[in-house]
Amino acid sequence: MSILNADLHCHSVVSDGTLEPEVLAARAAANGVELWALTDHDEIGGQHRAAAAARAHGMRYLTGTEISVTFAGETVHIVGLGFDADDAQMKRGLEETRGGRGERAKEIAAGLGQVGIKDAYEGALRYVGNPELISRTHFARFLVEIGACKDTSEVFRRYLTEGKPGYVPHRWASLKHAVNWIADAGGIAVIAHPARYKFTANEEYALFTEFKAHGGRGVEVVTGSHTAAEYVKYAETAREFGLAASRGSDFHSPDESHTDLGKLPYLPGELTPVWELLADRIQ
Ligand code: AMP
Ligand code: MN
Ligand code: MN
Ligand code: MN
């Protein structure tokens, strides 16, 4: 069961990816993905298209999303898998989570304006596929376009992270709500790329403990955002907390992502893969 090319984390134009769900499905299939999930940020508008495209390519499919959560003053991402894509509570919760993005984007643009980058709001909007989902990634693409930085990583480093001119703190969903929306809709909540958060050991312990207490059941172990050493570290964390393990590239764009769909190591054999818990939710 661990030896399965499952890619359960990626983004389309419905959030901050650059490809349409159908193009992603074709790319995943060409790369040998057997079980796929599209996990757009705070949005499930692409789910029916993704499931249909997966079917057309002979891939199995799990519904997916990646919910932005504020925990201990940091943004944490919770991936939801295998939920009912028409669930009303889930749709409402995600709509609320998306709600503040427009205002935040205007504040980001104002911050960038103060360091001489003009019309960033309009510039970022040209990269947006979904008007409800303007994200820092769209600003990053605009700043690369105007030559302010050589790539999007440099934009984040110089402009869009804490302490930088285009950084605007934001309150996302609560951990409890995100986990509940997913679980109540029949799915499984998974902590995304845990190595990416700037937590102390105590804060990370609190995240995993509270996540479990709310009903969270999985953690990403093998992801495009982790190093090989971090696969080992979070395999151990999965065992310690009795969580199932997930695998996903976090692919956004052929021009930006260093890990392509399906192109990452298999899960360590001793872990329970999340898809084992979701056998009856696979389409
Ligand atoms: P937002 O939800 O608007 O705060 O944007 C978050 C998104 O920005 C993430 O999902 C990533 O796609 C992207 N991102 C965050 N940090 C970086 C980084 N250091 N380099 C490139 N992209 C990043
Ligand atoms: Mn993203
Ligand atoms: Mn993420
Ligand atoms: Mn992601």
UniProtKB/TrEMBL annotation:
Residue intervals of the Polymerase/histidinol phosphatase N-terminal domain: 6-71
Gene Ontology MF, one: 5'-3' RNA exonuclease activity
Pfam families (alphabetical): PHP
Transmembrane segments: none
InterPro entries (UniProt xref): 35NBP, PHP_dom, PHP_domain, Pol/His_phosphatase_N, Pol/histidinol_Pase-like
UniProt-recorded name of the protein: PHP domain-containing protein
Species whose genome carries this gene: Ramlibacter montanisoli
